[in-house]
Design brief:
379 residues; alpha+beta; 15 helices; 16 strands; 24% strand; binds the ligand Nc1ncnc2c1ncn2[C@@H]1O[C@H](COP(=O)(O)OC(=O)CCCC[C@@H]2CCSS2)[C@@H](O)[C@H]1O; LipoylTrfase_LipoateP_Ligase; acyltransferase; BPL_LPL_catalytic; Lipoyl amidotransferase LIPT1, mitochondrial
Length: 379
């Protein structure tokens, strides 16, 4: 597959293609083409592979005298900004039920939903040439080229709105020391019901300084014009990019899992997939919440106070009225959680082990089980 990439990139000469194969890395090949503009399209729909390819290009390609556009789309995923709190931003329970992954990107900003009806554009430049207005102009002009009557405009916060009211695109950026990228989404035919469901947080009582998303009413471009499709829109943005920057780059397919041409990329994807990055990089926060506990005959209110740093529970205090459950039991359970990850799988294991230590008392066992379930469900 990567040969296709090489041959496209080196379309000018067969000699160049042969030497590219010998050299083997994508950045070598890009350097050899000598082109100042390149358009890549991902063959993968895996969010972690695609984010890793962005990192790889940012770290390995000389962007001082070169601009690149990367086109990509993902299977359903929720993508949070670098400084965000996933417990505050999304419905992790629904995501787990539906097998939708959470990804933390390296750029800042808010949380968005991706699926194959959402396309992404990443504009790579030198830091000096970083220009979000110009990039969004490429997207809006491409849409205007396809449907001249369509009212699509970029806002001062770099969203793109349809008819002045519905968001169709969100923006984020990473500025490195010398290189930069600006990436944006474009909602073509995404599953809007799923988008709303996964972006509805369930965890109550979070106090944090993490970046908060700015929710907006969203719409798909295809709701406005069902004759459009994602591929046509991607092609049109690619062609408008060439026009805007005076390039004549073909769209080159890239396989972001190809370790031979992208050395180190698999490790980059693994880093993005790791719990330590997605959850562990959450800015320090606390949870202060009250919840109901029930059994067949009675009901009470319990409170939970936790401090969480790097996704790890630093302090934990669960209080249940003493006439409902002996104080020692909830206190002991709280102590067991300290030092563990704020993670339902790990907490379930801790809870199961703890439940086995409770002195034989069916009523307390039952109540303690309910308490453990409620705590696990918050994670
Ligand atoms: N796919 C998509 N596109 C546009 N808007 C969306 C999308 N998903 C959700 N939203 C809406 O935006 C807000 C969040 O807006 P907010 O402004 O807080 O955040 C963003 O826009 C971030 C955009 C990141 C773009 C990157 C490009 C490649 S990887 S992700 C959310 O609550 C929804 O109302």
């Amino acid at each position: 597959m990567i040969l296709r990439t090489f041959s496209n990139l080196c379309a000018q000469s067969q000699a160049c293609f042969r030497s590219a194969r010998a050299k083997s890395t994508l950045s070598d090949v890009i350097d050899e083409t000598g082109k100042s503009g390149l358009i890549l399209k991902s063959l993968s729909t895996d969010i972690f592979e695609n984010l890793a390819l962005e990192d790889w290009i940012h770290d390995h390609v000389d962007l001082q005298n070169r601009n690149m556009l990367f086109l990509w789309s993902n299977a359903p995923a929720v993508v949070i900004g670098r400084h965000q709190n996933p417990w505050q931003e999304c419905n992790l329970q629904v995501m787990r039920q539906k097998g939708i992954p959470l990804a933390r990107r390296r750029s800042g900003g808010g949380t968005v939903f991706h699926d194959l009806g959402n396309v992404n554009f990443t504009f790579f430049t030198s830091k000096k040439n970083y220009d979000r207005h110009r990039n969004l102009q490429v997207v809006t002009s491409a849409l205007k080229g396809l449907r001249p009557d369509m009212d699509v405009r970029a806002t001062e916060r770099f969203d793109i709105l349809l008819n002045g009211q519905h968001k169709i695109s969100g923006t984020a950026a990473k500025l490195g020391r010398t290189a930069a990228y600006h990436h944006c989404t474009l909602l073509c035919s995404a599953d809007r019901a799923l988008l709303s469901a996964v972006l509805k947080p369930t965890c109550q009582g979070i106090k944090s300084n993490a970046t908060q998303s700015v929710p907006s009413p969203v719409k798909n471009l295809l709701d406005e014009d069902p004759t459009l499709d994602c591929d046509t829109i991607m092609d049109s943005v690619a062609s408008q990019y060439n026009t805007e920057f005076g390039f004549s780059s073909p769209v080159t397919l890239v396989d972001p899992s190809d370790e031979l041409s992208l050395p180190g990329i698999q490790r980059m994807a693994c880093e993005l997939l790791a719990w330590e990055w997605t959850f562990g990089r959450t800015p320090k926060f606390s949870i202060c919440t009250t919840f109901e506990l029930k059994n067949d005959t009675s009901i009470c209110n319990a409170t939970l106070n936790m401090d969480i740093k790097n996704g790890i529970i630093e302090t934990c205090d669960i209080e249940v009225p003493s006439d409902w459950l002996p104080v020692e039991l909830s206190r002991e359970f709280s102590l067991h959680l300290i030092g563990g990850k704020l993670c339902p799988y790990q907490t379930s294991v801790i809870a199961a082990a703890f439940l086995r230590t409770i002195p034989q008392n069916k009523e307390f066992e039952r109540k303690m089980y309910n308490l453990c379930r409620r705590v696990v469900f918050m994670m």
